[in-house]
Design brief:
Blueprint: E1 4-11, E2 14-20, E3 22-23, H1 26-37, E4 42-47, E5 50-51, H2 61-74, E6 83-88, E7 91-98, H3 101-112, E8 119-122, E9 125-126, H4 134-147, E10 156-161, E11 164-171, H5 174-185, E12 192-195, E13 198-199
Parallel strand pairs: 2-4, 3-5, 7-8, 7-9, 11-12, 11-13
Antiparallel strand pairs: 1-2, 6-7, 10-11
Length: 200
């Protein structure tokens, strides 16, 4: 069965889409969600898609854990020695610490591509080895926004408390929202980004 749009709630010019159905892999589930996010006018996506590998694609938890460990070790961007993997009925939980948010995100992508994985729960904590100067971090983030053509920096407010960043304001679509969050995460020393942006 392929992913289906179960419901669409429309409010003004925007819509919230509920996805359902069954796919064979976790990566198919992610692709379906991202495709809907890219539709103009979609403001939110509720993903109720379930992953059910075919008989040939099913693996034991031990096999998935072994494949995940090997995949993380082969990826040069991920400090695999600091990441722990727990697998239960095809659901993978990642824990541990990394220095950068992109390393945490990459770990999810790498493990999510493994055949037999139904879902990935990423509880990895970002712990930079260096601190940040809170007085300058807001200015640095705004400069990052200006470097990205798809981000309208004039509509976004940045609040900084220690190593934590909050983004407020409005954006035009999911792409701009995610790009703004990634720009905030790109500064070394940031340990938390709260994305309170809304799509208007």
């Amino acid at each position: 069965m392929t992913p289906l749009i179960l419901r669409v709630a429309i409010k003004g010019k925007h819509a919230v889409v509920v996805l359902g159905g069954t796919v064979k892999t976790f990566i198919e589930k992610s692709i379906a969600e991202n495709n809907v996010k890219n539709i103009v006018g979609v403001r939110g996506v509720v993903d109720e898609i379930t992953v059910e590998p075919t008989t040939l694609g099913k693996r034991s938890d031990a096999e998935i854990a072994e494949a995940a460990t090997r995949a993380l070790k082969l990826n040069v961007m991920i400090p695999d020695e600091s990441i722990k993997i727990v697998v239960e009925k095809g659901y993978v939980t990642l824990s541990g610490t990394v220095e950068w948010q992109y390393q945490k995100n990459t770990a999810t992508s790498v493990v999510g591509n493994i055949w037999g994985v139904k879902a990935v729960v990423n509880t990895i904590v970002v712990k930079p080895s260096v601190g940040i100067d809170a007085r300058n971090v807001k200015e640095q983030i705004m400069k990052e926004f200006e470097r990205h053509a798809r981000i309208d920096a004039s509509r976004i407010q940045v609040e900084v408390a220690g190593n934590k960043v909050m983004l407020k304001g409005s954006v035009r679509n999911f792409d701009e929202m995610e790009e703004a969050e990634n720009a905030a995460w790109s500064l070394q020393g940031v340990t938390e980004v709260t994305n309170a942006l809304t799509i208007t």
